[in-house]
Amino acid sequence: MRVKASELLSSPESGETIIRLEIEPAPGDVIDAFIPGQIARLGLLGLHDPQPGYFAIASEPARSDAFEFVIKHRPGIAALLASLEPGAAVEVEGPMGHGFDLTPYKGADVYLIGVGTGVAPLRSVWRHLISHREEYGRVHIYCGFLTPCHRLLTDELDALSEHDIEVSVSVTNGSEDWNGPIGYVQDALRHDAPNGQNSVACLAGMNAMVDACRETLHTLDFDDRHILLNY
After folding, report:
1. What pLDDT is stored for residue 55 in this prediction?
2. CB-based contacts of 109: which residues, under 8 Å, 6+ apart?
């Protein structure tokens, strides 16, 4: 496959480089539908060091012309992928993993919870939900970032209200011009106290965040069958 587009998502003030990488198949080929939240193994042709890495697919499963990924520039294969120009060849293996399969939960309320680049697999889910909105109840996304300038996909998240999808964005460290919640996503969950009955939650992010959110969800009557991870 080849790079179709590369777009900077992060703010210069954040000190991070996070890009949206769009990878397309050879002309005439199409991508089969996959489960939201699945991952793919990405590498460069003929390169064994650094080794290929695993990245969550951020595009909607029904899209057949390209995969999208949210990639943070850090040492290893991620740095090389983040620096690729359109036309560069990429080895892609997948999709793989069990993802967030919401098929058994039609009619339920859906809560998507993630921090930082953990929004990547959740983006795959919310774009899927837009096309199947009538099949689910309330949909609420909880995103957490370090500071306001570390936020990602802000315009896209703001536009989700047009699809009857609620969004709550928390930052760990606020600023003078920040009027939203300050704290962790589990704090926002605890404050809103969503009803765990007939609900399902999808978690994506660091292990500490996942553990803390799972503990909070348990207090809200979510059982482990209704708390999903994509790996």
Report:
1. 96
2. 136, 137, 138, 139, 140, 194, 195, 198, 199, 200
Residue 132: per-residue pLDDT: 96
Q: Peptide bond preceding 27: is omega within 30 degrees of 0, i.e. cis? A: no
Query: Which positions ≥6 away from 175 have C-beta within 8 Å?
Result: 147, 148, 149
Specify the CATH number of the domain 103-229.
3.40.50.80
d(CA 111, CA 74): 29
Angle at CA of residue 179, ends 173 and 182, nearest 5° = 35
- What is the residue whose two structure tokens read 């590498």? 43
Which candidate, 2, 1, 92, places its Cα nearest to that of 39? 92
Question: For the chain, percent helix, then strand, then coil, each to nearest 5?
Answer: 30, 30, 40
CATH homologous superfamily of domain 2-96? Translation factors (2.40.30.10)
Check: pTM over 0.85? Answer yes or no. Answer: yes
Q: What residue spans define the domains of the chain?
A: 2-96, 103-229
pLDDT range class, residue 231, cuts 50, 70, 90: confident
pLDDT, tens digit (0-9, with 9 covering 90-100), for 4-20: 999 999 999 999 999 99
Average pLDDT over residues 212-230: 95
Q: Tokens 């697999």 label which residue?
A: 121
